[in-house]
Write a structure and sequence with these properties.
rod-shaped, five-stranded antiparallel beta sheet, binds adenosine-5'-diphosphate, 462 residues, alpha+beta, 55% helix
């Protein structure tokens, strides 16, 4: 409403000034026309009189009687000293007297002069010119004229301008009023929808018809609520998955501790049960650690990215996991190209490689192999983890990067898996501008391929 009132005020002021401008312009046009006509008439009379040898009452009257002066209300001719030698007025005639009208005084000093008054349909014009004979000023001609016909014309013109302006102003007010009403109605619709959305009803949609900016705004609000709805659904899913996952080891701990308390058992069995409780606690610990690191990934990058070669970090990961691989009877094979610099957070690279190597061992079969290769391909560093393990069913390939997703729950649990490892890997790869893909054949093995853009520069950390 505020913008509409400002708009109305501005339009009002513009129309008001336009009205004044048109009125002024028409008056100026009439003034110019009248001025040239009056001065021309004075000049004609002056040139007629200029032929007379002496400006006397009789000679001037005779000369003027030959001219048409019907349009003039009063005509005065003065001699050089300003004494009237002719006055067309019969009443209050100035004949024989000094005439000191300002126009005559100005004309006596050698200038043409015209003055004009306009009031309610009547124009009063006065003009005076000096009369010259053989280069010497011998007198002045002064005329007045009351023009009602042109005055009426001017008045009706001004009246029309005023009426048109008034109509326009009324139209502007009406138009602005309806426009503001429609605008505020649509705005209120958006506002009340936003109130509903703020209260948590993300499925609510703003329905606005039309093709104006407000419709686009409503569409943007709807897009936003769609995204909020998805984020909210993901959040709920995550909370329910996380609580479910945490509930299982907690239930096991409760069951085991109850058994120890209730049953009379020998020391050996009790020791075994306490060991199991410890394992479950370790699992809980691992899971909360992973959940924590996932939430950190969702926030901003914690550490700065740096340019470094990939191979040394892979060697570190392999050193760390070679013991586990040996225990599981898995052979680790490396084929790493040394010169592969990328822009990455080193801890992320370590974690990515660690999770993928650990999975390659965990989901392998005894006597199997895990090959880790690194090569440059065009502008990318391609890091591949190829195992000869159990493989992943095709239907599961799209889901293994989801949080808490496990193909074989029992196997994963047995190996201490939480279903979060690959979700962490994917988030870390993506936040370092990389990509991850997986292909697998059941019973033959899987290939995880991670690629990062090469960052060739002089300063590379080792
Ligand atoms: P987990 O902690 O259970 O290992 P991950 O997120 O690391 O969770 O992996 C998700 C699931 O994907 C695993 O439960 C497993 O079923 C499957 N998976 C991951 N890596 C492999 C692999 N190399 N071979 C076969 N299956 C795999």
């Amino acid at each position: 409403m505020r913008y509409a009132s400002i708009y109305v005020l501005i339009t009002f002021a513009a129309l008001f000034f336009l009205n004044i401008y048109c009125a002024q312009t028409s008056q100026t046009l009439f003034y110019q026309g009248k001025k040239s006509a009056m001065l021309e008439r004075c000049q004609v009379t002056a040139s007629e009189i200029a032929g007379l040898e002496v400006l006397s009452k009789s000679s001037v009257s005779e000369a003027i009687s030959k001219m048409s002066t019907s349009k003039v209300n009063r005509l005065i001719v003065t001699d050089r000293s300003g004494v009237a030698v002719y006055d067309s007025a019969t009443h209050d005639s100035a004949l024989g007297e000094y005439v000191l009208f300002p126009e005559i005084v100005t004309a006596a000093s050698g200038n043409n002069v015209f003055s004009w008054n306009y009031h309610s349909g009547t124009m009063l014009s006065r003009a005076a010119v000096p009369v010259y004979a053989y280069g010497t000023m011998i007198g002045c001609v002064y005329m007045t004229e009351y023009d009602t016909s042109q005055g009426m014309l001017l008045q009706s013109l001004l009246q029309n301008i005023f009426t048109i302006t008034l109509i326009l102003e009324i139209l502007v007010v009406l138009f602005s009023f309806f426009f503001a009403l429609a605008f505020s109605k649509r705005m209120q619709k958006i506002q009340s929808s936003m109130r509903i959305i703020r209260e948590g009803n993300y499925s609510h949609k703003v329905t606005l018809n039309g093709r104006d900016e407000l419709t686009f705004l409503a569409a943007e609000v709807n897009n936003l609520t769609d995204r909020l709805e998805i984020a909210e659904a993901e959040r709920r899913q995550f909370v329910s998955d996380a609580s479910h996952e945490l509930k299982t080891p907690l239930a096991s701990i409760k069951l085991l501790s109850d058994s120890i308390l209730q049953n009379e058992m020998d020391m050996e069995t009790a020791r075994e049960f306490v060991g199991d409780i410890g394992n479950e606690a370790d699992r809980l610990n691992r899971m909360t650690q992973e959940l924590l690191s996932l939430s950190k990934i969702d926030a901003a990058l914690e550490r700065e990215q740096e340019i470094l070669h990939i191979a040394p970090t892979i060697h570190r990961v392999v050193r760390m996991l070679s013991g586990i691989a040996q225990n599981a009877n898995i052979t680790l094979e490396l084929a790493l190209e040394e010169n592969c610099p990328v822009l990455i957070v080193e801890d992320d690279l370590y974690q990515i490689a660690f999770n993928l190597v650990e999975n390659g061992i965990k989901y392998n079969t005894p006597g199997g192999k895990l090959t880790i290769s690194l090569r440059r391909c065009e502008d990318n560093a391609i890091l591949q983890f190829t195992d000869t393990g159990v493989g992943i069913p095709e239907s599961a390939l799209d889901h293994i990067f989801e949080r808490f997703y496990r193909v074989d729950k029992a196997r994963s649990r047995k190996t201490g898996g939480s279903g979060l490892g690959l979700a962490i890997v994917r988030s870390m790869v993506e936040r370092n501008q990389g990509q991850i893909q997986v292909t697998s054949t059941m019973g033959q093995g899987s290939v995880f391929t991670v690629s990062f853009p090469i960052f060739d520069t002089e300063e590379v950390s080792q």
